[in-house]
Protein backbone atom coordinates (compact mmCIF):
# COMPACT_ATOMS: atom_id res chain seq x y z
CA UNK A 1 0.00 0.00 0.00
CA UNK A 2 2.91 2.35 0.68
CA UNK A 3 4.10 1.81 -2.90
CA UNK A 4 0.71 2.89 -4.25
CA UNK A 5 0.85 6.14 -2.27
CA UNK A 6 4.48 6.81 -3.22
CA UNK A 7 3.77 6.73 -6.96
CA UNK A 8 1.12 9.46 -6.93
CA UNK A 9 3.38 11.60 -4.76
CA UNK A 10 6.20 11.08 -7.21
CA UNK A 11 3.94 11.97 -10.14
CA UNK A 12 2.71 15.03 -8.22
CA UNK A 13 6.31 16.00 -7.49
CA UNK A 14 7.24 15.62 -11.15
CA UNK A 15 4.29 17.79 -12.20
CA UNK A 16 5.24 20.36 -9.57
CA UNK A 17 8.85 20.42 -10.77
CA UNK A 18 7.70 20.78 -14.38
CA UNK A 19 5.45 23.72 -13.42
CA UNK A 20 8.27 25.37 -11.50
CA UNK A 21 10.77 24.94 -14.33
CA UNK A 22 8.23 26.28 -16.85
CA UNK A 23 7.55 29.21 -14.53
CA UNK A 24 11.28 29.83 -14.20
CA UNK A 25 11.73 29.80 -17.97
CA UNK A 26 8.88 32.27 -18.39
CA UNK A 27 9.92 34.61 -15.57
CA UNK A 28 13.64 34.55 -16.42
CA UNK A 29 12.90 35.06 -20.13
CA UNK A 30 11.13 38.28 -19.22
CA UNK A 31 13.61 39.38 -16.57
CA UNK A 32 17.00 37.73 -15.99
CA UNK A 33 16.92 39.09 -12.44
CA UNK A 34 13.56 37.51 -11.59
CA UNK A 35 13.45 36.44 -7.96
CA UNK A 36 12.35 33.10 -6.56
CA UNK A 37 9.10 34.85 -5.59
CA UNK A 38 8.62 35.97 -9.21
CA UNK A 39 9.29 32.42 -10.40
CA UNK A 40 6.92 30.92 -7.83
CA UNK A 41 4.19 33.33 -8.96
CA UNK A 42 4.79 32.45 -12.62
CA UNK A 43 4.57 28.75 -11.72
CA UNK A 44 1.45 29.23 -9.62
CA UNK A 45 3.06 27.74 -6.51
CA UNK A 46 4.34 29.02 -3.21
CA UNK A 47 7.94 29.96 -2.51
CA UNK A 48 8.30 27.02 -0.12
CA UNK A 49 7.21 24.63 -2.87
CA UNK A 50 9.98 25.99 -5.08
CA UNK A 51 12.53 25.54 -2.31
CA UNK A 52 11.18 22.06 -1.67
CA UNK A 53 12.48 21.06 -5.10
CA UNK A 54 15.33 23.52 -5.71
CA UNK A 55 17.63 24.44 -2.84
CA UNK A 56 18.96 27.63 -4.47
CA UNK A 57 18.07 30.12 -7.17
CA UNK A 58 21.16 29.11 -9.24
CA UNK A 59 19.99 25.48 -9.14
CA UNK A 60 16.58 26.61 -10.43
CA UNK A 61 18.15 28.83 -13.12
CA UNK A 62 20.24 25.89 -14.31
CA UNK A 63 17.16 23.65 -14.46
CA UNK A 64 15.33 26.28 -16.52
CA UNK A 65 18.25 26.70 -18.92
CA UNK A 66 18.70 22.92 -19.26
CA UNK A 67 14.99 22.58 -20.03
CA UNK A 68 15.16 25.34 -22.66
CA UNK A 69 18.20 23.69 -24.23
CA UNK A 70 16.43 20.29 -24.29
CA UNK A 71 13.48 21.88 -26.07
CA UNK A 72 15.89 23.61 -28.44
CA UNK A 73 17.66 20.33 -29.19
CA UNK A 74 14.32 18.79 -30.15
CA UNK A 75 13.73 21.62 -32.59
CA UNK A 76 17.27 21.57 -34.00
CA UNK A 77 17.14 17.78 -34.39
CA UNK A 78 14.51 18.39 -37.06
CA UNK A 79 16.79 20.58 -39.19
CA UNK A 80 17.88 18.85 -42.38
CA UNK A 81 21.68 18.59 -42.21
CA UNK A 82 22.11 17.16 -45.70
CA UNK A 83 23.40 19.08 -48.70
CA UNK A 84 25.71 22.01 -49.26
CA UNK A 85 27.13 23.06 -45.86
CA UNK A 86 26.33 26.73 -46.61
CA UNK A 87 22.64 25.91 -47.14
CA UNK A 88 22.61 23.67 -44.07
CA UNK A 89 24.16 26.48 -42.05
CA UNK A 90 21.48 28.87 -43.29
CA UNK A 91 18.74 26.47 -42.11
CA UNK A 92 20.49 25.84 -38.82
CA UNK A 93 21.00 29.55 -38.14
CA UNK A 94 17.33 30.27 -38.84
CA UNK A 95 16.24 27.68 -36.31
CA UNK A 96 18.95 28.67 -33.85
CA UNK A 97 17.99 32.33 -34.07
CA UNK A 98 14.44 31.68 -32.95
CA UNK A 99 15.74 29.72 -29.96
CA UNK A 100 18.25 32.41 -29.01
CA UNK A 101 15.60 35.08 -29.36
CA UNK A 102 13.30 33.18 -26.98
CA UNK A 103 15.92 32.46 -24.34
CA UNK A 104 18.45 35.30 -24.41
CA UNK A 105 17.36 36.75 -21.05
CA UNK A 106 17.38 33.24 -19.54
CA UNK A 107 20.92 32.76 -20.78
CA UNK A 108 21.87 36.09 -19.22
CA UNK A 109 20.45 34.92 -15.89
CA UNK A 110 22.43 31.68 -16.12
CA UNK A 111 25.68 33.45 -16.96
CA UNK A 112 25.27 35.58 -13.81
CA UNK A 113 24.79 32.71 -11.36
CA UNK A 114 26.28 29.50 -12.74
CA UNK A 115 29.91 28.54 -12.28
CA UNK A 116 32.30 29.46 -15.07
CA UNK A 117 32.13 26.92 -17.86
CA UNK A 118 28.75 25.46 -16.86
CA UNK A 119 26.78 27.33 -19.55
CA UNK A 120 29.27 26.08 -22.14
CA UNK A 121 28.80 22.51 -20.88
CA UNK A 122 25.04 22.82 -21.18
CA UNK A 123 25.42 24.11 -24.77
CA UNK A 124 27.77 21.27 -25.76
CA UNK A 125 25.29 19.41 -28.00
CA UNK A 126 24.42 22.51 -30.00
CA UNK A 127 28.07 23.51 -30.32
CA UNK A 128 28.98 19.99 -31.43
CA UNK A 129 26.37 20.10 -34.20
CA UNK A 130 27.82 23.37 -35.55
CA UNK A 131 31.38 22.09 -35.19
CA UNK A 132 30.58 18.96 -37.24
CA UNK A 133 28.99 21.13 -39.93
CA UNK A 134 32.00 23.43 -40.09
CA UNK A 135 34.33 20.43 -40.38
CA UNK A 136 32.26 19.09 -43.26
CA UNK A 137 32.32 22.51 -44.92
CA UNK A 138 36.09 22.60 -44.55
CA UNK A 139 36.42 19.15 -46.13
CA UNK A 140 34.18 20.31 -48.99
CA UNK A 141 36.34 23.41 -49.45
CA UNK A 142 33.58 25.95 -48.73
CA UNK A 143 34.58 27.04 -45.20
CA UNK A 144 37.90 28.51 -44.19
CA UNK A 145 40.54 26.39 -42.50
CA UNK A 146 42.83 29.12 -41.14
CA UNK A 147 40.91 29.67 -37.88
CA UNK A 148 40.29 27.21 -35.05
CA UNK A 149 36.88 25.56 -35.27
CA UNK A 150 36.10 26.30 -31.63
CA UNK A 151 36.76 29.97 -32.36
CA UNK A 152 34.33 29.94 -35.29
CA UNK A 153 31.65 28.17 -33.22
CA UNK A 154 32.02 30.76 -30.48
CA UNK A 155 31.84 33.61 -32.99
CA UNK A 156 28.58 32.18 -34.34
CA UNK A 157 27.15 32.03 -30.81
CA UNK A 158 28.24 35.62 -30.15
CA UNK A 159 26.70 36.82 -33.42
CA UNK A 160 23.39 35.18 -32.48
CA UNK A 161 23.40 36.64 -28.98
CA UNK A 162 24.49 40.03 -30.30
CA UNK A 163 21.54 39.95 -32.69
CA UNK A 164 19.20 39.30 -29.77
CA UNK A 165 20.63 42.33 -27.98
CA UNK A 166 20.18 44.47 -31.10
CA UNK A 167 16.53 43.42 -31.32
CA UNK A 168 16.00 44.01 -27.60
CA UNK A 169 17.31 47.58 -27.88
CA UNK A 170 15.32 48.27 -31.03
CA UNK A 171 18.33 48.84 -33.29
CA UNK A 172 17.42 45.91 -35.55
CA UNK A 173 14.00 44.57 -36.51
CA UNK A 174 13.49 40.95 -35.54
CA UNK A 175 12.31 39.98 -39.02
CA UNK A 176 15.66 41.17 -40.44
CA UNK A 177 17.81 39.10 -38.10
CA UNK A 178 17.88 35.72 -39.90
CA UNK A 179 19.24 37.33 -43.07
CA UNK A 180 21.72 39.55 -41.16
CA UNK A 181 23.00 36.65 -39.07
CA UNK A 182 23.32 34.35 -42.06
CA UNK A 183 25.20 36.89 -44.16
CA UNK A 184 27.50 37.76 -41.27
CA UNK A 185 28.30 34.16 -40.36
CA UNK A 186 28.79 33.01 -43.95
CA UNK A 187 31.16 35.91 -44.57
CA UNK A 188 33.18 34.88 -41.53
CA UNK A 189 33.28 31.18 -42.39
CA UNK A 190 33.92 31.72 -46.08
CA UNK A 191 36.54 34.45 -45.54
Note down, in words, how this protein is organized.
It is elongated, with a radius of gyration of 19 Å. The protein has 191 residues and is mostly helical. The chain has a single domain (57-190), classed as Tetracycline Repressor, domain 2 (Orthogonal Bundle), CATH 1.10.357.10. The protein contains 9 helices and no strands. The chain is 77% helix and 0% strand.
The percent range for helix content is over 70%
CATH class category label? Mainly Alpha
Q: Order of helices and strands, N to C?
A: HHHHHHHHH
The number of helical runs is 9
Cα(first) to Cα(last) distance is: 68 Å
How much strand?
Answer: under 5%
Shape: elongated
Report the major sheet. none
Domain HTH tetR-type: 14-72
DNA-binding region: 35-54
InterPro entries: Homeodomain-like_sf, HTH-type_TetR-like_transc_reg, HTH_TetR, Tet_transcr_reg_TetR-rel_C_sf
Organism: Paractinoplanes pyxinae
Quick gist of this model?
The chain is built from nine helices and no strands. With about 190 residues, it is mainly α.
Question: What is the topology?
Answer:
Elements: H1 2-30, H2 36-43, H3 47-53, H4 57-76, H5 85-113, H6 118-122, H7 124-139, H8 149-168, H9 177-190
Helix pairs in contact: 1-2, 1-4, 1-5, 4-5, 5-7, 5-8, 5-9, 7-8, 8-9
Amino acid sequence: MADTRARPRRADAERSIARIVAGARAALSRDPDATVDDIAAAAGVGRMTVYGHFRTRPELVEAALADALRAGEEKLAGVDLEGDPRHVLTRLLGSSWSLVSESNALLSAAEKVLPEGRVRQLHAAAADRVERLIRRGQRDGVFRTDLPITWMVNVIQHVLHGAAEEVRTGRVRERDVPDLVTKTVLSILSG
